[in-house]
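User: Fold this; tokens only.

Assistant: Input:
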Amino acid sequence: MNGRYVSVNAHDGRQFQAYLATAIGGSGPGVVLCQEIFGINQAMRDVADFLAEEGYSVLVPDLYWRQKPGVELGYSEEDFQQAFGFYQAFDENAGVDDIRASLNALRQLPECTGSAQGVVGYCLGGKLAYLAACRLPEVACAVGYYGVGIEKALGELEGLQGRRLVLHAAELDQFCPAEARAEIFAAALKTPGVETYLYPGVDHAFARPNGHHFNKPAALMAHERTVA
């Protein structure tokens, strides 16, 4: 796939960059893809391209642009420490605003068809996808992969109002341990429209292509549930 970068107008009048992967047929339903803590790196572009092959037009916003535009980190210990620093300083509310701006930008592109839009996110982006589903009425559905910290924001579910939300969790994920998962799954059972899936024997980032914890069977199963 040949993706490209486009400019997105933020709510405060400034602009930030986003990676656009166009649906294989030239146009398709719009999806905003929210990054892990490592920025828009090759893994995130690969995920966007993969979704584009499924027929979606995918926009990946640079969610760190307020701190440092163009962050693209790998998975060395040094890069992880940098990524964790960006994560700790990240403003989630501003991130949701940027998702809204990205949805608006995507709607205006000829590569995007239809009014229904989705949000998919991984790690940091998994929680942001959750928050976007709960806060933004323009989000028709959202999918969060091993989102971190969702158990601290369960009150947000009141805003979901029946929209589809899918949450994928890894059994061995130290960033979302069993106690946190139990809280999330219990709240999900009481909320219409929420689907939760636990993948046994896999760790955080099990769906990252070529990652250390990549588990192909679990990743494929999660993908099938994501695009269902």
